[in-house]
Amino acid sequence: MLPRYENKINEIQMMLANIISEILEAHTQALEAFETRTPAQFDHVKGILKTVQQEANAIDNEIVKTFALFGPEAQELRLLISYLKMTNELVRIAEGAKKYARRMKEHCESECNLANLDNIVIKLHASSIAAIRYISECFSNHALCDYSDLYRSVMVEESKCDDLHSILEKEILSRIIIEGELSIEYVKVLGTLRKLERASDHAINIAKLMLYSKEGGEIRSY
């Protein structure tokens, strides 16, 4: 394709990389807030992600302009379609992170005893962050990124998140039996932790889109 097209693709990739970097930073801040039991630090997450929706809209607009100006075909077309779908996944991760931070701040200040869950929650959060970090690293170095390896790596972290969330469900159900008066609060905690598990689901969707952009076929087949 023409150099102007390549410059536009690089611009879009940099915009996507910036959103992913913000999401990674927000999740890292949220994990640190949980580990140190610093509720006020959860407020930083919303600030980091406050412009993600606008940034995603700007990317979508640039993609539409690129369609109109260059009429890409084959792999170039798949790449732009992938990026167009990817912004939605990133926005959903960001929204989930903001909800997680707001709710977890409330849980940490409530009467719920989360101490026995700390180790599992931290591992769940770490796996979610790892999945996002793999995506971020790939965007930072497109030329050397092996999309098949990326997909496998993210899949491993997504599987870990599923397993860890299942363990948390059992632990929290046990907590509900012991502390029945706080049952509603513990159910809310479980819903909050689902946001971390969902982050890895969206990360695997992004990895699928990146693999599709290179290999073609049907997205769902990956």
Index terms:
222 residues, mainly alpha, Methane Monooxygenase Hydroxylase, Chain G, domain 1, 7 helices
Description:
This protein is mainly α. It has one domain (3-221): Phosphate transport system protein phou homolog 2, domain 2 (Methane Monooxygenase Hydroxylase, Chain G, domain 1, Up-down Bundle). The chain is 82% helix and 0% strand. α3 (52-70) packs antiparallel against α4 (74-108) and α5 packs parallel to α7 (183-215). The longest helix has 35 residues, at 74-108. It is elongated and about 65 Å long. The two termini are 27 Å apart. The mean pLDDT is 91.
Q: Residue share in helices?
A: over 70%
Helix and strand string, N-terminal first? HHHHHHH
Name the CATH superfamily assignment: Phosphate transport system protein phou homolog 2, domain 2
Dominant shape:
elongated
Number of helices: 7
Q: What's the number of domains? A: 1
Strand content: under 5%
CATH structural fold name = Methane Monooxygenase Hydroxylase, Chain G, domain 1
How many beta strands in the DSSP annotation?
Answer: 0
What structural category do the secondary elements indicate?
A: mainly alpha
* CATH architecture descriptor: Up-down Bundle
Rounded mean pLDDT is 91
Characterize the main sheet. Answer: none
Q: Regarding quaternary structure, how should these chains be classified?
A: single chain
- What is the first-to-last residue Cα distance? 27 Å
Instruction: Return Rg in Å.
Output: 19 Å
